[in-house]
């Protein structure tokens, strides 16, 4: 029997030590935080196989996690790195089904920064 791959989930941390996704979770409330924790655990097992309504592909390697609580739609954006890692960049509250372009652009900037710092040895996994 083949062993199932488990992805390692990390939160993006800026060069200044800020962690946008942790900050988002702190402000979102305990129930939303618990829902994301459960969904992140599922994501660690399913990886790219996790589909709607829980996750979706956006663009440039950026994907979204989708949590609905009360009348709000919460999103966490992430990308895969070196095959074994899932890097969660940040989160936001969304009022519509589509992800605003500026949120995707922010995730792309975080992804570029992360990859650059890993490649130069500034950041270790």
The count of β-strands is 5
Helix proportion range: 25-40%
- Order of helical and strand elements: EHHEEEEH
How do the strands of the widest beta sheet line up side by side?
1-5-4-3-2
Summarize the main sheet: 5 strands, mixed
For this structure, what is the CATH class?
A: Alpha Beta
Total helices: the number is: 3
Strand content: 25-35%
State the gist of this model.
With 125 residues, the protein is α+β, with helices and mostly antiparallel strands.
Question: Can you walk through the features of this model?
Answer:
This protein has 125 residues and is an alpha+beta fold. It has a single domain, classed as 2-Layer Sandwich (YaeB-like fold), CATH 3.30.2310. 36% of the residues lie in helices and 27% in strands. The protein has 3 helices and 5 strands, in the order βααββββα. The protein is globular. The mean pLDDT is 94.
């Amino acid at each position: 029997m083949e062993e199932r791959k488990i992805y390692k989930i990390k939160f993006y941390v800026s060069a200044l030590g800020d962690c946008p996704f942790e900050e988002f979770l702190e402000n979102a409330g305990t129930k939303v935080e618990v829902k994301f924790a459960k969904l992140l655990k599922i994501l660690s097992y399913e990886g790219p196989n996790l589909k709607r309504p829980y996750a979706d592909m956006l663009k440039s390697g950026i994907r979204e996690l989708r949590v609905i609580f009360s009348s709000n739609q919460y999103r966490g954006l992430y990308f895969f790195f070196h095959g074994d890692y899932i890097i969660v960049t940040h989160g936001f509250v969304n009022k519509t089904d589509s992800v605003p372009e500026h949120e995707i652009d922010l995730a792309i900037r975080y992804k570029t920064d992360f990859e650059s710092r890993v490649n130069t040895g500034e950041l270790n996994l």
